[in-house]
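Students often ask why inverse folding is considered easier than folding. One informal answer: many sequences map to the same fold, so there is more than one right answer. In these notes we will look at a single instance of the problem. The structure comes first.
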């Protein structure tokens, strides 16, 4: 991948021993589902993806020349949430993270965190989010690792934030049980703040799983592990997007970009042909019929469909469509190829048609 990550896919269930080694059973058990017994062995739904990525690191012996090593996964995790705390897409019991882990040397920590901050800013700005509240969360009361390890990790995060030039506030005791972290809350169109991105430095899991590398003196040393999620929970991020745009998505982001509407059912075959051609060009489209045209248009407006392609006898005869935009009004008659070209250009440039 462009950013140097290897993509992974790991199991949703593991033997309970894995979560004992990682410390989750000691420090995170109240957030985990009950274990299940299979063939006289205990198994556990994963609450996090980290231990699997550590096991993949352990498959082979690494040299200091191999670092940084970056792995990423769209991994679904399962966390026991009280029924009263569940809230639409924002808090669920099973969700997918754009989860990644970076294994690096101590002198690479600052650059790696800075790289994640740059990537986070780049991705969030694509969706129109450019206002953040940045929190640096420090050691909680219930944690693993000694004070020296926590001080090193916290300093590395501070150093990267200051290098980036972002102002931040301290969330005292808000860190994960295995390390301090940076949390970003994004601000939506109504000024509400939502927790999404997180970056965590971890000196503890490498120690608990005894992962090592060979340094330039042929000695075994322990690497640093960085956890990161840019969007965080994809479900929560989708919820934030829906709230931010009030369901009225711009063309490039809309699940359905265009709807093809026949004046009568006599034009339905041609509409289906148009729909197939638009789909083949990568445009998200659907054909709707079965109602009078005014109602089809009204339904598309109410459902906030960005583009409508109306087809009557004249359009069938000339092999064209008449286009209406939610944002720009009537655009007139045009060929299918012109519509495809203009729609794709507008999507790529994040503009309206």
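Output (designed amino acids):
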């Amino acid at each position: 991948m462009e950013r140097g990550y290897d993509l992974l896919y790991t199991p949703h269930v593991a033997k309970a021993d894995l979560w004992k080694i990682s410390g989750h059973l000691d420090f995170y058990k109240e957030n985990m589902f009950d274990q299940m017994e299979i063939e006289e062995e205990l198994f556990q739904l994963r609450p996090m993806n980290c231990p699997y990525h550590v096991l993949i690191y352990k498959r082979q012996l690494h040299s200091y020349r191999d670092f940084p090593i970056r792995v990423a996964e769209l991994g679904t995790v399962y966390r026991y949430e009280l029924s009263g705390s569940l809230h639409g897409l924002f808090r669920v019991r099973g969700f997918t993270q754009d989860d990644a882990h970076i294994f690096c040397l101590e002198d690479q920590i600052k650059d790696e965190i800075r790289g994640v901050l740059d990537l986070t800013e780049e991705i969030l700005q694509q969706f129109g989010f450019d206002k953040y509240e940045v929190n640096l969360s420090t050691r909680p009361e219930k944690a693993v690792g000694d004070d020296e390890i926590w001080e090193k990790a916290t300093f590395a995060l501070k150093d990267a934030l200051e290098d980036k030039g972002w102002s931040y506030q301290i969330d005292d005791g808000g860190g994960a049980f295995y390390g301090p972290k940076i949390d970003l809350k994004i601000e939506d169109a109504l000024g509400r703040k939502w927790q999404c991105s997180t970056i965590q430095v971890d000196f503890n899991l490498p120690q608990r799983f005894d992962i090592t590398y060979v340094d330039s003196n042929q000695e075994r040393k322990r690497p640093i592990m960085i956890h990161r999620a840019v969007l965080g929970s994809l479900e929560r991020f989708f919820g934030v997007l829906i709230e931010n745009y009030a369901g009225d998505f711009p063309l490039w982001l809309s699940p359905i970009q265009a709807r093809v509407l026949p004046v009568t059912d006599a034009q339905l075959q041609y509409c289906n042909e148009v729909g197939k051609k638009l789909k083949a060009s990568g445009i998200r489209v659907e054909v709707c019929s079965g109602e009078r045209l005014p109602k089809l248009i009204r339904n598309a407006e109410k459902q906030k469909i960005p583009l409508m392609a109306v087809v009557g006898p004249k359009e069938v005869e000339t092999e064209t469509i008449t286009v209406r935009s939610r944002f720009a009004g009537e655009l007139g008659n045009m060929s299918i190829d012109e519509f495809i070209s203009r729609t794709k250009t507008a999507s790529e440039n994040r503009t309206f048609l």
